[in-house]
Amino acid sequence: MLQALHPVELKGVHIPHNKLTAELETVRMPLPSKIVLPMNQHVGAACVPQVGRRGHVDVGTCVGHVNARMTADIFSPVSGQVTEIRDLHYSDGRSDRALVIKPDGEQTVDPSIAVPEVTDYASLVEAVRHSGIVGLGGAGFPTWLKMDCDLSGIDTWLVNAAECEPYLSSDYREMMEHPDTLLEGIKVCLDMSGVKRSLICIEDNKPKAIELLREMAADDPRIDVFVLPARYPQGASRVILRNVTGRSVPRGGHLTDVGALLFNVTTMSEIGRYLRTGMPLVRRRITVMGDAIERPQNVEVAIGTPIGEVLEFCGLKEEPRKVVIGGPMMGVTQVELDAPIVRQNSGLLAFSHELVERPQTTACIRCSACIDNCPIHLAPISIQKAYYKHDLEGLDRLMADLCVECGTCSYVCPARQPLAQSTRFARAALRAEQRKKRGRG
Amino acid sequence: MTGVDPQAQVNERPLVLLTAPQLVSPMTTQVIMRDVLIALAPTMAAAGILFGLRALLVCAVAVGSCVGMEWLWCRLRGIPNTADDLSAAVTGLLLAFNVPSTLPLYMVVLGSFVAIILTKELFGGIGRNFANPAVVGRIFLAVAFPVAMTTFVAPGHILSPVDVVSSATPLAPTAEQLSLKELLLGTHMGVLGETCSLTLILGGIYLLVRRVISWHTPAAYLGTVVLLSLLTGHEVLPQLLSGGLLMGAFFMATDYTTSPATIRGKVVFAIGCGLITCLIRFWGNLNEGVAYSILFMNLLVPHIDALTPNTPIGGEGVRRRKRGGKDHE
Fold first, then answer.
1. Which of A88, A165, B128, B290 is 20 to 30 A from A375 (CA-CA)?
2. How much is the ipTM here?
């Protein structure tokens, strides 16, 4: 009986949306002085540079490729010369190789660019494989790999247009500015895969997009718009799946196990655009915001543009003290303004005063806000305690590996405990342990 | 803006590195405790009107001694000062609400000592005490000074300066004779904060609206008492509105530290509180039914927590398998 106290719909928390840039047209940024193109802009194996130093590249030239399954090719967004191949160190401790390209301003297009021919699902997957498209909502999972699954049990092609992160509006602008490529992408995928329906899932704080897409999708009975309440983290894949279809992904499983595929809305639109033009993913839209920014707006940038140049383009009111790539809930703070925008980034925030101070941690008062608000119904505070004790068995019992890293626990904690951080570590530790066990078994 | 040269900037004043999320909600421990104090304020005002300035003096002494002792404890032990998070003030005010206005002030201070030092700080301070400090303080005073703790003064002290009637009559037997108006306005004898039901309900609603407490605990607690009263043939309204039930249900059983973590746990906890309260009220001979029930259930919290975890989304089948294939829930 007490189970009934848990609503079927996952609730989430209300966080001020602050989407100030939502109704501003996207501004196209001129070419930067240099392009820094990391070889690992996705989940999976890092690419290997395909051009040497001083090599010439055109727009759309494949500059990064590796013989592996779980990867996605990298393409040059400019024509110009490779000036350097250097190491890149990210603020989260990862390092990477990066091509530095100096644009020549000609923007000559690579002669190999051609509109792909799509006749069946396999050819569609193959086309997407050569488009460089990855999960553009932030995950960076190679899109073709996600599409390349057993379709027999799949009944729903979900399009994630929730954009639940505060501040960010780049997905919203994609829907408002390119609904045609979005619907084309969805239709081709449905046609080729034979999946029966597609739901575009949008939070109710975007009424214009809901109306526009409803109108444009009216002629296709397979495509519908599904309106969700605007609550964080509505766009987390397990949460959106549960709230739209009522299904939950079993532990250790994938969405495909419960008959659904889920793609970010910009990813779908990019597929539509690629099938139309044949130009791989070389540019993307990001939301630039924060109290240090003079003109908050959505900017279309060449992938690989250094964040310092994007900030300069939008104007800096003051010296930024904190720069975040991504949204304010899941974004990663940066140490170097030389770091580039990569293809799965959707936001760039710069702060001089707001959100700069590290919140003071006080004692946990057992208020259970983290437990009550976790979208996955985990117990973050217990996970933190188990992690501090290196209690892997406890972490397994608490199922720390199910965490979606949305950060809600840290957000709601009145004692400012670093719950999201410790759960992230706990999840990594538990997954490493699970891999070890599997290796032995 | 000239400072975009990346290298220069890193050297001069490094960019702040913080793990996600960058945003935090405005709720802090202090804000929560301030909300509880705000919710308790109308009841304090009512106590002042009903029982006179002496009642406010008791409140001031209790809050002052609780905050003072916490401050002193942190000072002496050289640990970060937690007196400004207002939790000690909440404990002090709740303790004051649990004693009669005639209680000698040194007893109030003693009660504060038991609450803050013995119950809270010795177990590690805020968030680590296993029992509700104010509840333990009240029970200590009731056991140590039974006469002083049951010497009530008739209300209306300020409004109509009639003779102060002192009485050692226990509260419960008279409760059923009181009218609804008396119960709501609190114009009957009792401890400071228990008599005026109206202000307690107001405070409870404030806490619910501010989402400081969830409705499950008071609903399950009060619901259990109503149900058991009906089953045993007691009048429902006097049971609900007299004694410490409302204060217990809204302000003491909802104490974060000493109640279970999950909603399911909270419901189990509150039903237990209701059950023990009714046992003591109907068949026992104690004034502190509510206080004892909360204390007993406080002791069970670790076990309730262990038995009522949430089932994570996607982890439904896993737990079942772990417990030997039994198909429960």
1. B128
2. 0.86
